[in-house]
């Protein structure tokens, strides 16, 4: 859990964050597939967090050395950074050259050599291509790798107090000695703001926005399971016949097979449905939400 900093209130809303998260699902699939092809190994990219923080806090969180690709996204002003843990980066280079280092990586963290830098550019170019595919539906954006940096203190992409959106993944390479590390994408507000505006314009019109006060409760309710009850036409039976019922007795119902049934949550009817079967099991086919007058046979409960 991240503490809330009142000196730096979140600049981007929950809905905007969701849009960016959806774009990066495409990025994760494309990059893991492309990198897996280069390494001839199974690669997975698992989302860890999507945070808002100050640019100076982001810089302080990075080790030195680390691998940072600076990605321009014309025609948007500014640049995005793609940071890879240097230990993992060296492991990826070794695998690209045919080695099979163990999970401990390629030794102590160090600055990559010129040859390793050339190979890392190739790997990061694959990540930039995946980012371009994720953004292709947003507008005429052309991400391109502009440079590679190993000392985060040399990055001058935003003011120290500027808000950035930080997308964090856990990158795992399976094989002889599984290895993993963190990969992050950082969007300064100067890039994220115009980008999210374009995303909103590119998305189809949505239903009217919910009341912000009820949004947290609505999200919690989405994962709660509720029991559904199928309600048929009432079947009156004398009390003496009910008392005489035994296992195996059959009750004749007054509900016709072609007559709609009600599907209720608790005591509240919410759907209409038709009776049927699915394989050997009895089932109902939902017809519609119950927004019309009560059925003729329905009784108050």
Strand order of the largest sheet: 1-5-6-3-2-4
Largest sheet: 6 strands, antiparallel
Helix content: 25-40%
What average pLDDT do the residues reach? 81
Strand coverage percent: 25-35%
Q: What structural category arises from helix and sheet content?
A: alpha+beta
| Tally of helical segments | 7
Distance between the termini: 45 Å
Indicate the CATH topology of the largest domain. Chemotaxis protein chec
Order of helices and strands: HEHEEHHEEEHHEHEEE
Q: Rg, please?
A: 29 Å
- CATH homology-level superfamily of the largest domain: CheC-like
Keywords:
301 residues; disordered N terminus; four-stranded antiparallel beta sheet; alpha+beta; elongated; Chemotaxis protein chec; 2 domains
Tell me what the structure shows.
With 301 residues, the chain is of the alpha+beta class. It has 2 domains: 14-217, CheC-like (Chemotaxis protein chec, 3-Layer(aba) Sandwich), CATH 3.40.1550.10; 225-289, SpoA-like (Surface presentation of antigens (SPOA)). 31% of the residues lie in helices and 27% in strands. The chain is built from 7 helices and 10 strands. The strands form 2 sheets. A 6-stranded antiparallel β-sheet has the order 1-5-6-3-2-4. Strands 7-8-9-10 form a 4-stranded antiparallel β-sheet, with no helix packed on it. Helix 1 (14-39) crosses helix 4.
């Amino acid at each position: 859990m991240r503490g809330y900093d009142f000196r730096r209130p979140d600049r981007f809303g929950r809905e905007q964050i969701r849009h960016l998260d959806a774009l990066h699902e495409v990025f994760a699939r494309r990059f893991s597939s492309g990198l897996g092809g280069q390494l001839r190994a199974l690669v997975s990219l698992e989302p860890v967090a999507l945070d808002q923080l100050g640019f100076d806090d982001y810089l302080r969180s990075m080790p030195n050395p680390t691998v940072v690709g600076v990605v321009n996204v014309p025609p948007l002003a500014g640049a995005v950074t793609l940071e890879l843990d240097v230990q993992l980066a060296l492991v990826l280079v070794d695998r690209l050259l045919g080695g099979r280092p163990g999970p401990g990586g390629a030794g102590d963290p160090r600055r990559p050599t010129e040859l390793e830098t050339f190979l890392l550019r190739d790997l990061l170019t694959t990540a930039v291509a995946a980012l371009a595919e994720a953004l292709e539906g947003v507008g005429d954006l052309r991400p391109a790798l502009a440079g590679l940096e190993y000392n985060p203190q040399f990055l001058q992409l935003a003011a120290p107090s500027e808000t950035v959106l930080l997308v964090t993944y856990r990158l795992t390479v399976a094989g002889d000695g599984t290895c993993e590390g963190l990969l992050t994408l950082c969007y300064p507000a100067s890039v994220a703001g115009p980008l999210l505006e374009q995303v909103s314009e590119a998305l189809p019109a949505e239903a009217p926005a919910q009341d912000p006060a009820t949004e947290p409760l609505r999200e919690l309710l989405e994962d709660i399971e509720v029991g559904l009850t199928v309600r048929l036409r009432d079947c009156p039976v004398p009390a003496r016949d009910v008392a005489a019922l035994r296992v195996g007795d059959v009750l004749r119902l007054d509900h016709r097979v072609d007559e709609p049934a009600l599907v209720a949550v608790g005591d509240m009817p919410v759907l209409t449905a038709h009776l049927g079967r699915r394989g050997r099991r009895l089932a109902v086919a939902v017809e519609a939400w119950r927004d019309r007058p009560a059925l003729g046979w329905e009784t108050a409960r």
